[in-house]
Amino acid sequence: MKTLLRSIRTRRPGRGFSLIEVLIGITIIGVAMLGLAQAFLLSVNNNTRAGEIAHASFLAQQQLDYLRTLTAAELSTFPSTARGESSDQSLDPNGDGSSDFRRITQVSTGGTGFTVKILVFPATAIGKTAATILAAPSQYRVRAVVSSIIVR
Fold first, then answer.
1. pTM score, two decimals?
2. Does residue 64 sit within a domain?
């Protein structure tokens, strides 16, 4: 018991952290966490954008594959309402009831075949005229552009 009392009495003051040291430590940790949070948010935004680009590329390729199945006569009359086609479509690939993309398809007759250009935009481009969007596609954040020539 005497040794315990002696060790309590002989304890040197200042062995713990002062309030200033604790506040400085918390500030350093806070700044580090803030930097990590910004990096996390940046990665989430990049992943979202990459997913959007992958979806848009798939939708553009899907349209090109469809156009490749058409005959020369069908391509020359694209888009045909009788076949249920449209050159300007609002698309809802996830089926949630709201359009997520806008796909604009241009087909023109060239010397060697049909020149096809497909542009896919995010939902923010819905509501604008096609001519306005096609005049400055990058302004409306075009997500995919596929160009091809179909020969028949």
1. 0.76
2. yes
Burial of 89 (0-12, 13-18, 19+ CB in 10 A): middle
Q: Could you give the CA distance from residue 30 to residue 24 in angstroms, rounded to a whole number?
A: 10
pLDDT exceeds cutoff 80 at 2:
no
Q: Report the percent of the chain where pLDDT is more than 70.
A: 91
DSSP line for 63-110: HHHHHHTS-HHHHHT-S-TTTT--SEEEE-TT-SSS--EEEEEEEEE-
Element (H, E) at 121: strand 114-122
Pair type for strands 101-109 and 144-150: unpaired
Number of domains in the chain: 1
Cα 76 to Cα 118: distance, rounded to the nearest angstrom: 16
Residue 27 belongs to domain spanning: 19-150
- Per-residue model confidence (pLDDT) at position 152: 80
Q: Tens digit of pLDDT for each residue in 89-142?
A: 999 998 999 999 999 999 999 778 999 999 999 999 999 999 999 999 999 999
Residue 111 lies in a domain: yes
Neighbours of 90 (CB within 10 A): 16
Asked if the structure places residue 6 within a domain, the reply is no
